[in-house]
């Protein structure tokens, strides 16, 4: 699993919660949805740089805590009518653990 790092056990992230991973590429927010999906986005809203990790997760989106921009967790794209994109990172579950790809 070259380029993958183990972040934590899935149960260490609350459903509809997040965890921040510091990396050389900036902070990465790892999100867990209510149905145990996991997603990784650059922890910076494309609008004004707000911390997405502090936003509200609902379905497969997160709402930025600063100005209410809704960002899709699957693709990092802002939900219309908002515009912009947060960089997406590959995240997966394996053996109950959350893994992040940094390459």
Automatic annotation (TrEMBL):
Recorded hits in InterPro entries, A to Z, give: Rieske-like_NirD, Rieske_2Fe-2S, Rieske_2Fe-2S_sf
Say which domain of life the source belongs to.
Bacteria
> Which Pfam family would be a valid example here?
Rieske_2
Where along the sequence do coiled-coil regions lie? none
Its keywords, alphabetically, are: 2Fe-2S, Iron, Iron-sulfur, Metal-binding, Nitrate assimilation, Oxidoreductase
**Which GO BP terms apply?**
nitrate assimilation
Which GO MF terms are attached to this record?
2 iron, 2 sulfur cluster binding; metal ion binding; nitrite reductase [NAD(P)H] activity
Q: Does the keyword 4Fe-4S apply?
A: no
**Boundaries of each Rieske domain copy?**
5-100
| Xref: PANTHER family | 3-PHENYLPROPIONATE_CINNAMIC ACID DIOXYGENASE FERREDOXIN SUBUNIT, FERREDOXIN-RELATED
Q: What is this protein called?
A: Assimilatory nitrite reductase (NAD(P)H) small subunit
Please name the source species. Answer: Sulfuritalea hydrogenivorans sk43H
Print the organism lineage.
Bacteria, Pseudomonadati, Pseudomonadota, Betaproteobacteria, Nitrosomonadales
